């Protein structure tokens, strides 16, 4: 499927590039210039025909065929423009004299003429068939009347997994303190935003008036006001101008508390929204406008007080429930266990999307054979395309993307499903393909960022991760959206497998998982116009002739991703890479190369060169300065890189350079690189210690786009004064947001750090590590935007924020000067990390307060610093290996607290502080304006050997605690005998006890109804699990490891039906598992290892259970004589490992019921005589491993063993280390 908008972008790009090419005004090029103008005229005509074709409501086969032919010609034209641009660039560099000769322009004339004639022919032929239809509107606008008004009743059986979402939104409605609040629900198409809004709408009782209005794409304010009036008055609205409609609207809404649902809003025009919003502000206090939208921009322009409510996909359990409800009749699930495994795979492709599940369920309803389900599974997207619901829902957002962004989206289909996109990488690849249309006042990267944001905001990208500065860095594309990308990309993009034949000659962008380069060349030989090749499984090539054949076969390549390239370390193999003249993106990350061939420098169009984690790489090519278009050089993890080559400073276009290694050229190679942005790490600064000229210049102050700067001295040995002089010249631009210092050898800091509030006012993060002479750090408490600071491995540091007052070079008094009336210190600080600070005593020592008259007086920190050092924003605090530290300022907003290898005095002071009342806190130096740690969700205490006990009642003041971990505190006598007295025990979701003495008195812990994760590791005195866990109905994970005294787990696990992961390892005395194992219908992984007394009970074995079990590992169970019969119902089991079970003599015949099994491993079971008769039933089994089983080693011999016929159908069989 070729998108006209994409071709329009290509035509306009070629026309623009041709127009920008200048040529000499000499006789020899007149013909070429004339032909170039003719081609530009033909391109203009082509654009006009494309615009006419775009108006067609339906694309005929003739149109589709014409678009494909046109696309092929445009690809040739883009390559020609590349060649011309490169030639003129070389001329400017005086590299080639050939391009000034008549012969060169004669060759170019012939190429331009050929493309022009082809283009003219294809346009002429198509105009004979083109029929221009009047625009009948978007065929994707499926607005239906039944969405205009919500049904008065939503069937409970049709809605799964939205109870929590519904309650959260209802709370937002109830807690509304404004006259009219706006609450947007944001999520991708098909997630059920409208359904959720209906649930809330139906349940909302405390409103005088409830209204529902479907908005869709036509955001006309007058039309919407009429709709609101109509549903508010239950009468037709007269056709009046907006100013009169306003009076009618306020008459209907005035003095009423209303709930208005605006469903499916796409508008991103803030002015239009403000007009509508102002018209709707006439309701009583507590009125709410609830909005559903899939567009983040639409949500953000609304005048909301909080954040939009983000709707996510359904959980696996809810997906399964919805699926079964729609596909099976009551009771039928139990009769069709073989289908559930296929159903799991189908559900995984639906990505938690309820509409997708509903659509697929419709395809499966009435089909109850595995072959029918497998067909649907294998052809899911093709079958779904025929449906009238799901594809329009997903494609509707695509249809409203700008044409050039459509092209960027379809390109993403070459990445495997589940691939984690790096935003920067994706933009660089779009640039390599010329997808990004240049602008005179914007960088290509910034334009690409806008394209990315469009796709992200419209929910095509999800699961985003942000950096410390709020920028999206990685994201994913869900399965259905990926399938949509593949559909719209057509033959142009493909994920190629080694079993594919007849690769299309129209293939342009491909990813392959084949590792041998010669096989890739053979497989893709027909794709001569290939522009992207992504090798997802690494690549190896040891013969130069194979690489030469590859480069000669794919000369149009613009992006080549060779991740993990192996060529025995020799760059000789890669010599011909310079032949790929169009290459703009080259990724050799994680390769074993030691040097790059100098021929890389012939890639004059190269924009991105990725060398991340090339751990053997020692040097860059000597002529790298020739890569004048290089914008991104990524060299993370190139630890052996010895320095930057001479002339590196000439790469003035470079924007990304994570690591700059100081070499023979010194810091002068940084001069001129003023377009650097993002992060910069300067290594081996000790190499500049003896160069006096280095300390006299400022190399970084002009680099205004840098966000993060890391300065590294790899050795502390040397002259501290030289380090200080060098450091003085490393002042960054005031825009810097992150400053990291490592290995600095002197105790004095540069003058520009003494007033960072002015010199670096935008700092967000500061770290200091491995600076042995650092006794104190310059005052940085007035950095208004500082969110994170971390100090580690500073052997001399005594105080965090005290510094000398005498002079920048003095070190005598350790006092600081603070003007009276100073602002709050660290107003934005969110995270503090202090580790390996052996001399740290306190946050501060003392303060000198200077009044307006200049008279100074010294007072205690408790009184003077109470308001300044309030740390109101602090949410995460980590302290470790600070033996002298006995107190630390806290604040009740702390959410995460981790303490490791610190004194009992510090822990006691913190925990005792948590019990101080607000009145008492006002007189306590530790906790200014402090009451309790009311926001704390995660507490970890570990490796505190002298910790004997925790204060009485300390847990009572942790009402929000969700995760509690106490590990390796060998002297701790008790977690707390009062644990069951938690003020809000329902909040605790994760409890970990590791290598502590959990006393028997604590076996009656109660009330953990919200506990999701339980980990007990290395608890030598634990004899049984807390009885209260039987009521932990939300428990999902239990891990019991090295509890040698544990005899029993729980009396019954029947109530813990949410359990998904159960691990029991090295529990020497445990003899049996609890009753009710068969009721664990959500259990996915069960691992039991090294429990010598354990045997299984077969009670209730006739009750079907363990339906969701995917992995079972049984290891080191000598008393196990047979597999538990409850496993015969585990029809979803895919991985079964049986190891070191010396008492096991036979495997049951019912094992053949496990038809989903893919991998079976049997190891060191000395008495196991034979395999079961049901082995041929394992039709899905891909791999069988048998190791150290003497009887089986004989019976499973290929062709001759008596069990061979049972296993001969299995693709991969390993017997005692040998593949059969």
From TrEMBL:
Residues 414-485 form the Disease resistance protein winged helix domain. PANTHER family: DISEASE RESISTANCE PROTEIN RGA4 (PTHR36766:SF70), PLANT BROAD-SPECTRUM MILDEW RESISTANCE PROTEIN RPW8 (PTHR36766). SUPFAM superfamilies: L domain-like, P-loop containing nucleoside triphosphate hydrolases. It comes from Liquidambar formosana (Formosan gum). Residues 931-1068 form the Disease resistance protein At4g27190-like leucine-rich repeats domain. Residues 164-329 form the NB-ARC domain. The keyword Nucleotide-binding applies. Residues 27-85 form the Disease resistance N-terminal domain. It holds the Pfam family LRR_R13L1-DRL21. One of its GO terms (molecular function) is ATP binding. It comes from the Eukaryota. This is Uncharacterized protein. GO terms for biological process: defense response; response to other organism. Keywords: ATP-binding, Leucine-rich repeat, Nucleotide-binding, Plant defense, Repeat. Residues 667-792, 1126-1189 form the R13L1/DRL21-like LRR repeat region domain.
């Amino acid at each position: 499927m070729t998108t006209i908008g994409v071709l329009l972008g290509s035509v306009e790009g070629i026309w623009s590039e041709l127009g920008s090419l200048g040529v000499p005004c000499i006789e020899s090029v007149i013909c070429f210039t004339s032909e170039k103008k003719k081609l530009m005229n033909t391109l203009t005509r082509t654009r006009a025909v494309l615009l006419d074709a775009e108006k067609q409501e339906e694309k005929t086969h003739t149109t589709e065929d014409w678009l494909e032919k046109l696309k092929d010609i445009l690809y040739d034209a883009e390559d020609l423009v590349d060649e011309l641009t490169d030639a003129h660039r070389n001329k400017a560099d005086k590299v080639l004299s050939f391009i000034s000769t008549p012969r060169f322009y004669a060759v170019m004339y012939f190429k331009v003429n050929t493309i022009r004639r082809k283009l003219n022919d294809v346009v002429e032929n198509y105009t004979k068939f083109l029929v221009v239809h009047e625009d009948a509107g978007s065929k994707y606008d499926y607005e239906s009347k039944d969405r205009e008004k919500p049904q008065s009743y939503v069937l409970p059986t049709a809605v799964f997994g939205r109870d929590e979402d519904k309650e959260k939104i209802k709370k937002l409605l109830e807690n509304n303190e404004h006259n009219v609040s706006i609450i947007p629900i944001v999520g991708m198409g098909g997630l059920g935003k409208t359904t959720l809004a209906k649930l809330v709408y139906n349940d909302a009782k405390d409103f005088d008036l409830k209204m529902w209005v479907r908005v869709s794409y036509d955001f006309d304010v007058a039309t919407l006001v009429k709709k609101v009036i109509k549903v508010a008055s239950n009468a037709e609205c007269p056709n009046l101008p907006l100013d009169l409609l306003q009076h009618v609207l306020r008459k209907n809404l005035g003095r009423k508390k209303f709930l208005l649902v605006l469903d499916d809003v796409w508008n991103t025009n803030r002015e239009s929204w403000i007009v509508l919003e102002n018209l709707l502000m006439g309701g009583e206090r507590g009125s709410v406008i609830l909005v559903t939208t899939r567009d983040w921009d639409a949500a953000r322009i609304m005048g909301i007080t909080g954040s939009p409510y983000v709707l996510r996909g359904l959980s696996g359990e809810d997906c399964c429930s919805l699926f079964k409800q729609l596909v099976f009749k009551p009771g039928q699930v139990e009769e069709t266990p073989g289908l559930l495994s296929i159903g799991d795979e189908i559900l995984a492709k639906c990505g938690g999307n309820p509409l997708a599940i509903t659509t697929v369920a419709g395809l499966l309803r009435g089909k109850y054979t595995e072959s029918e389900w497998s067909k649907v599974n294998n052809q899911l997207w093709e079958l779904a395309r025929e449906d009238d619901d799901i594809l329009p829902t997903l494609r509707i957002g695509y249809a409203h993307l700008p044409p050039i962004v459509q092209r960027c989206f379809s390109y993403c289909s070459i990445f495997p499903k589940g691939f984690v996109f790096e935003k920067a990488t994706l933009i660089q690849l779009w640039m390599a393909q010329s997808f990004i249309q240049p602008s005179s006042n914007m960088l290509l990267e910034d334009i690409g960022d806008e394209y990315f944001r469009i796709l992200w905001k419209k929910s095509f990208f999800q699961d985003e991760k942000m950096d410390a500065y709020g920028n999206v860095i990685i994201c994913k594309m869900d399965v259905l959206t990926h399938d949509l990308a593949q559909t719209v990309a057509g033959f142009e993009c493909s994920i190629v497998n080694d079993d594919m034949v007849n690769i299309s000659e129209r293939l342009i962008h491909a990813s392959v998982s084949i590792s041998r380069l010669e096989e890739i060349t053979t497989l893709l030989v027909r794709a001569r116009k290939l522009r992207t090749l992504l090798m997802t499984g690494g690549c190896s090539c040891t013969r130069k002739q194979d690489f030469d054949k590859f480069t000669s076969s794919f000369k149009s390549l613009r992006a080549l991703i060779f991740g993990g390239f192996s060529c025995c370390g020799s760059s000789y193999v890669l010599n011909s890479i310079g032949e790929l003249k169009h290459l703009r993106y080259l990724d050799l990350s994680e390769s074993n190369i030691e040097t790059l061939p100098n021929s890389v420098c012939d890639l004059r169009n190269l924009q991105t060169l990725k060398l991340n984690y090339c751990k053997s790489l020692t040097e860059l090519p000597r002529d790298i300065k020739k890569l004048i278009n290089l914008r991104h050089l990524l060299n993370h993890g190139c630890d052996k890189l010895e320095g930057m080559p001479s002339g590196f400073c000439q790469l003035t276009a470079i924007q990304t350079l994570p690591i700059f290694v100081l070499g023979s050229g010194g810091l002068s190679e940084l001069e001129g690189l003023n377009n650097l942005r993002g992060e910069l790490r300067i290594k081996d600064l000790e190499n500049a210690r003896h160069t006096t000229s280095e300390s006299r210049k400022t190399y970084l102050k002009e680099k205004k786009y840098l966000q993060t700067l890391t300065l590294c001295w790899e050795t502390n040995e040397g002259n501290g004064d030289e380090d200080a002089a060098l450091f003085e010249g490393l002042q960054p631009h005031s825009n810097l947001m992150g400053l990291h210092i490592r290995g600095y050898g002197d105790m004095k800091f540069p003058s520009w750090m003494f007033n960072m509030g002015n010199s670096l006012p935008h700092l967000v993060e500061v770290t200091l590590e491995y600076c042995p002479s650092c006794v104190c750090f310059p005052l940085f408490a007035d950095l208004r935007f500082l969110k994170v600071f971390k100090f580690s491995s500073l052997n001399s540091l005594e105080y965090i924020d005290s510094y000398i007052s005498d002079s920048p070079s003095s070190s005598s008094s350790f006092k600081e000067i603070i003007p009276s009336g100073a602002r709050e210190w660290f107003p934005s600080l969110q995270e503090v990390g202090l580790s390996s600070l052996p001399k740290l005593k306190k946050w501060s020592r003392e303060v000198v307060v200077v009044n307006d008259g200049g008279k100074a007086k010294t007072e205690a920190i408790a009184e003077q610093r109470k308001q300044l050092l309030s740390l109101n924003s602090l949410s995460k605090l980590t302290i470790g290996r600070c033996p002298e530290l006995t107190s630390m300022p806290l604040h009740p907003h702390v959410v995460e607290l981790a303490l490791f290898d610190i004194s009992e005095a510090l822990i006691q002071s913190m925990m005792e502080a948590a019990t101080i009342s607000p009145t008492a806190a006002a007189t306590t130096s530790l906790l200014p304006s402090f009451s309790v740690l009311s926001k704390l969700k995660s507490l970890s205490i570990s490796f505190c050997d002298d910790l004997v006990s925790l204060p009485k009642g300390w847990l009572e003041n942790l009402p929000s605690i969700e995760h509690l971990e106490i590990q390796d505190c060998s002297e701790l006598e008790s977690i707390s005998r009062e644990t069951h007295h938690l003020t809000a025990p329902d909040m605790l979701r994760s409890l970990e006890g590791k290598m502590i003495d959990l006393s028997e008195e604590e076996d009656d812990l109660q009330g953990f109804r919200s506990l999701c994760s339980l980990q007990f590791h290395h608890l030598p005195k634990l004899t049984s699990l807390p009885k209260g866990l039987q009521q932990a109905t939300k428990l999902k994970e239990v891990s019991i490891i090295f509890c040698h005294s544990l005899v029993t787990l729980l009396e019954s696990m029947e109530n813990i039906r949410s359990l998904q992961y159960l691990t029991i390892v090295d529990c020497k005395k445990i003899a049996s598992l609890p009753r009710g194992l068969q009721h664990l219908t959500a259990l996915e992984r069960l691992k039991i290892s090294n429990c010598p007394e354990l045997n299984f009970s077969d009670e209730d074995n006739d009750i079907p259970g363990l339906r969701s079990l995917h992995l079972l590992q049984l290891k080191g169970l000598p008393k196990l004589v047979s597999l538990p019969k409850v496993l015969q119902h585990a029809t979803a089991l895919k991985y079964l490992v049986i190891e070191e079970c010396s008492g096991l003599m036979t495997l049951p015949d019912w094992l053949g019921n496990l038809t989903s099994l893919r991998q079976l491993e049997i190891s060191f079971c000395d008495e196991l005589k034979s395999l079961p008769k049901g082995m041929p039933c394992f039709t899905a089994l891909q791999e069988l491993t048998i190791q150290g089983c003497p009887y089986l080693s004989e019976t499973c011999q290929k062709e001759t063993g008596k069990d061979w016929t049972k296993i001969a159908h299995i693709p991969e069989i390993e017997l005692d280390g040998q593949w059969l």
